[in-house]
Amino acid sequence: MPARKVRLGRDRSPGVTIRAWAGWRRFTASPDLPRLSVALVAFVLVGCETLGFTSGGRGEAPVVERPVLVCPRVASPSDTADLVRFRTPESRDLTDLVVSARITSLNGTCALVNRNAAVQVTVTMGVEAMRGPAAPGRTIQLPYFVAVTGPDEEVLDKAVYTLAVEFPANMQRARMQGEEIRLTIPVTAERPASANRVYVGFQLTEQELALNRSRVVAR
């Protein structure tokens, strides 16, 4: 599925790229994300590897240590982790509900690439959705974004995707896992991978974002 790229921020790094790879799979939802100002999901970290070499002589083999790679943090901001869509933006009547969805999991890995000049982060998102009475059909498109920020939270790049959730006959709830998203982020000694953050959330309208924020404050 082609991705529609949206780039924001005056200081966007031209080396950051976000690509989607086809890979739709069913999944079992994990427990709810913590309802903090930003709900963080830990990635698997690549640890320090020790390599031994022998030269045929006596004594211990020399030890070579590779630097520890700390992956960028991946988060789903609490005000974009839910999507509640009505038939009309102003309505709050449950009979006008089209879909209610939430991000239930974020999974991924990271590794150094390009001769250690960049880190490649792989992210997949799990979603649970409920079909509302006003849904026009049994397939509903959920827009979501993946964004990369730098040390000062400046947006380096952002891409918007669509997750198509299919509801089987007589079923009003569905769980899906979306595309595998691969991000390539340049790294240096002064700006390691851990200095960046990756955010995943629903691409909301102004009314949907305001509703989410009012619900967060009410909790």
Describe the structure in brief.
Helices cover 6% and strands 46% of the residues.
Can you give a write-up of this model?
It is a single chain. The protein is mainly beta. The protein has one domain (4-218). The chain has one helix at residues 206-218, and strands spanning 4-6, 17-21, 38-41, 50-52, 63-65, 73-77, 82-86, 97-113, 118-131, 139-149, 155-166, 173-177, 180-186, 197-202. The strands form three sheets. A six-stranded mixed beta sheet has the order 1-11-10-14-6-3, with no helix packed on it. Strands 2, 7, 8, 9, 12 and 13 form a six-stranded antiparallel beta sheet that branches. The radius of gyration is 21 Å and the shape is elongated. The model is unreliable at 1-14 and 21-57 (pLDDT under 50).
Features:
mainly beta, elongated, 14 strands, 6% helix, six-stranded antiparallel beta sheet, single chain, six-stranded mixed beta sheet, 219 residues
| E-strand count | 14
What is the mean pLDDT? 77
Categorize the overall geometry: elongated
Structural class: mainly beta
Question: C-alpha Rg, in Å?
Answer: 21 Å
Q: Regarding quaternary structure, how should these chains be classified?
A: single chain
Q: How do the SSEs run, as a string of H and E?
A: EEEEEEEEEEEEEEH
Total number of domains: 1
* C-alpha termini separation: 37 Å
**What ranges have pLDDT less than 50 throughout 5 or more consecutive residues?**
1-14, 21-57
Could you give a short account of the major beta sheet? 6 strands, mixed
Strand content: over 45%
Fraction in helix: under 10%
